[in-house]
Request: fold
Amino acid sequence: MDCIQLAPEHTEIAPDGSEIRPLITGKRASLVHCTLPAGARSKAVMHRSIEEIWYFIEGRGQVWRQRGTEERVVEVSPGTALHIAPGTAFQFRNRGVNDLRFIIASMPPWPGDEEAVEAPAHW
Reply:
């Protein structure tokens, strides 16, 4: 029965370049806190096999997603949640003056950096 306190600083850099603070990893899912600094944009990537649910808690930004012929850019801010299915290319950017912060649930748990494949950049 794990109980984790959020680390004061990031301890990992995701394959997309965002700052990661791990929270909990279970048998079927993992949970992390993600930060993209003000004015920054991530690298475009696609996950091979995991799906993710993102919940935004601070800042303002945009997320681009493309799967097959469907492509969408959405505005994100505190209270926004979105889904990234396996095989979806995505990229995000911080359009605000403060850090963009969100919680990511990965199912199954994040297997390692080889899970992310570089995708053509939208921005």
Observations:
- The two ends are 41 Å apart (CA to CA).
